[in-house]
Design the sequence.
């Protein structure tokens, strides 16, 4: 049995995966990214200093871990070179021993960034050239990392030492029973196949994307953990049935510091959507849930969970990618009582206010999987481990 854990987003990205990956990376041997590019932005707080990684896996901040950028990524050579430099400037060790880039990953060319800005504005993309790079890959006119670094280009000399056959390397590491963490980017509803198309990113962000994005068989993924925020946020365009525009929405946006890690754009916020959650459990085959930012809900009298959509007199109980339904439905809510206490420094589930416990238990019930971690703030210490057996 492999000793590997997948960590993926269950909503529209920005669920707080960066902190969780950083937390789990401490006990892992390898951290591997399998999808996306520098559209992602994982915020990690180390020694009170914030670091946002866009391409380099979050495990780089821990000594002795191997970090892999898989073939499923699209890589902007300038951004990656700068990120490596920034890390080195912060005294983080980055060498070909602890950072490996797949020779089969694809390159984001400057013209793709221009194209993204010009043609994809209506989709609210991050304008990083990610979509056009994947389009070039699929239409077989893309440039692979190995082709790029075999020529005398700007940044090719800097990146070349890191470029290897990651497919072979990761399979060998798994076979040697190394602990491998698969670091997802974005979230289930942004998946190119299963998300709210066309308001999606251009890669498979779900657990299935790990097989193609790293070149491993499905049996080598031993556990799948989904990260879901205690409420939902979305940045960019696209449907969002439980969006809250009134004061409560502003409260969550401000208190939760809901601004994009990559673009700085304000995120729309809304209530937890159990239909979305159940869908993410299904398409990823999730074993357990990691619930983040529960502390942000403190101070609300009532907390709502969406348990159905009403659309043209029909009650819908399962998530759908039909835009007409998502854009025009009325969410059916269950009201739960809130709590007033600041919970951001509480240690242990039992010490949480009764209503916070009830909220967690209700989400477990609705999604049909247990919560294994609750996160109460950006620091490592603000983490309640509920089910150790799901971790390394
Ligand atoms: P693209 O991935 O830049 O093409 O953007 C497509 C959509 O995915 C837009 O709505 C983006 O805002 C969203 N998106 C891409 N990456 C992230 C992320 O890491 N967090 C949140 N949203 C993202």
Sequence:
């Amino acid at each position: 049995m492999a000793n590997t854990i997948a960590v993926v987003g269950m909503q529209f990205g920005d669920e707080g995966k960066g902190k969780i990956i950083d937390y789990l990376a401490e006990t892992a041997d390898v951290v591997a990214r399998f999808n996306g590019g520098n559209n992602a932005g994982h915020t990690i707080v180390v020694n009170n200093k914030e670091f946002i990684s866009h391409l380099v896996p979050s495990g780089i901040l821990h000594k002795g871990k191997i970090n892999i950028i898989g073939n499923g990524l699209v890589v902007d050579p300038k951004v990656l070179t700068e990120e490596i430099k920034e890390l080195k400037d912060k005294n983080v060790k980055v060498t070909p021993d602890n950072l490996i880039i797949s020779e089969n990953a694809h390159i984001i060319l400057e013209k793709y960034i221009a194209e993204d800005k010009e043609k994809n504005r209506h989709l609210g993309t991050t304008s990083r050239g990610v979509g056009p790079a994947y389009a070039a890959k699929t239409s077989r006119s893309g440039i692979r990392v190995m082709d790029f670094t075999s020529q005398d280009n700007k940044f090719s000399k800097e990146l070349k030492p890191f470029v290897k056959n990651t497919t072979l390397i990761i399979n060998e590491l798994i076979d040697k029973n190394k602990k491998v963490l698969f670091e997802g980017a974005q979230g289930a509803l942004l998946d190119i196949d299963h998300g709210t198309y066309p308001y999606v990113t251009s890669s498979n962000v779900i657990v299935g994307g790990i097989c193609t994005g790293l070149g491993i068989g499905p049996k080598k993924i031993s556990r799948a953990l989904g990260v879901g925020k205690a409420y939902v946020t979305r940045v960019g365009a696209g449907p969002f049935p439980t969006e809250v525009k009134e004061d409560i929405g502003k409260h969550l946006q401000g208190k939760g510091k809901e601004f994009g890690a990559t673009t700085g754009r304000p995120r729309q916020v809304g209530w937890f959507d159990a239909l979305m959650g159940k869908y993410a459990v299904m398409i990823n085959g999730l074993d357990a849930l990691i619930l983040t930012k529960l502390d942000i809900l403190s101070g609300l009298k009532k907390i709502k969970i969406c348990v159905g959509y009403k659309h043209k007199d029909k009650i819908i109980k399962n998530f759908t990618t039909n835009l007409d339904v998502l854009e025009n439905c009325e969410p059916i809510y269950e009201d739960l009582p809130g709590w007033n206490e600041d919970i951001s420094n509480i240690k242990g589930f039992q010490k949480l206010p009764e209503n916070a416990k009830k909220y967690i238990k209700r989400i477990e019930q609705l999604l049909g999987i247990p919560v294994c971690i609750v996160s109460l703030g950006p620091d490592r210490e603000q983490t309640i481990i509920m089910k150790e057996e799901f971790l390394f």
In short: The pocket of inosinic acid is lined by residues 12-14, 39-41, 123-126, 128, 130-131, 185-186, 190, 199, 201-202, 235-236 (CB under 6 Å). DSSP finds twelve helices and 20 strands in the chain.
